[in-house]
Structures are given as structure tokens and as C-alpha cells.
Amino acid sequence: MSALRNEQIINPPTSPEESELARTSSRLLAACIGKGKTAGLRVIDGDGVIEVPVAALRMLVDILTNMAAGNAVSLVPIHAELTTQQTADFLNVSRPYVVGLLERGELPHHKVGTHRRVRFSDLMAYKEAQLRKSKAALTELAKLDQELGLQ
Predict the structure, then answer these.
(1) pLDDT tens by residue, 85-124
(2) CATH code matching the domain that covers 81-148, chosen among 1.10.490, 1.10.1660, 3.90.25, 3.30.460
(3) E strand or H helix at 30, and its extent?
(4) Contact (Cβ atoms closer than 8 angstroms) between residue 50 and residue 63
(5) Are 22 and 64 in contact (CB under 8 A)?
(6) Which of 13, 32, 55, 107 is positioned for an S-S bond with 18, CB 3.0–4.6 A?
């Protein structure tokens, strides 16, 4: 198995049996997660115990939970560099909109040859900042609504 270099998609289960297996596995793994930094897993086909970081087990529980719900899961290393189309897909906007963000300097990027690349860590920082702005705007609207008695 090669290292995760770029985005990797984990597709949702294709049958009700696979969904139920993901749901059951998620619950069983979640119940096994202790308070330590590592956990041991015993694989039936293997001879020994595999020690893994608890953070990896939590991630696996999240993946299985999403799979059980019928959601595809995307794993992206924090150091990954995304194309403008991948960035647009992640933000659920058009590629020209992303290009505008890049050209206005609202989203950091660099060029590889003539192609723009966005670091995933920068994309996540941008998305979190946008979420904070949206929440602040919503709070302000709710406050105005209360002041005007429009509830």
C-alpha cells in the first residue's frame, strides 16, 4: 500500500449488508477506544497485535460512520496541493469563482509552471474564516431581528 499523497476517495457501501457492517464496525471500534495514546488491534488472519495511534482509530470510526450513512469520504493530506478545480469542488463553487479568489489574494496559492495550486491547509484556513464570517453575520441579523421585534 502506498502512502497517501493526494486526495483519496472512499466510496459508500453498495449494499445494505455493507452499510450494516460499517455501522456495526464503527460502534465496536468506538467502544474499544481507550484513553491512552495507542490501541492494539488483533486481526483474525494475523498472528500478532497491531498497535495503532488512537487518533487513527477515531478517524476509522468516523469513516465507517459516514460509510454507514451512505456518504463518500475524502481523505486529503494536510500538505496536499490542489488544482483550482479540486479547490472549487471542495468549496462547492465554480472554478472561475476560485480563480477570482486567487487573483484577489483572498486564498493563497502558488504556481507550478503555469498552473495554480492551493495548499489544502490554506484552503481549510480560508473555509474556517468564511464560516466564522457567516456565523458573525447570522448573529448580527438575529440581533437586529430582536431589536426590531421581527421575531
Answers:
(1) 999 998 999 999 999 999 999 999 999 999 999 999 999 9
(2) 1.10.1660
(3) helix 16-32
(4) no
(5) yes
(6) 13
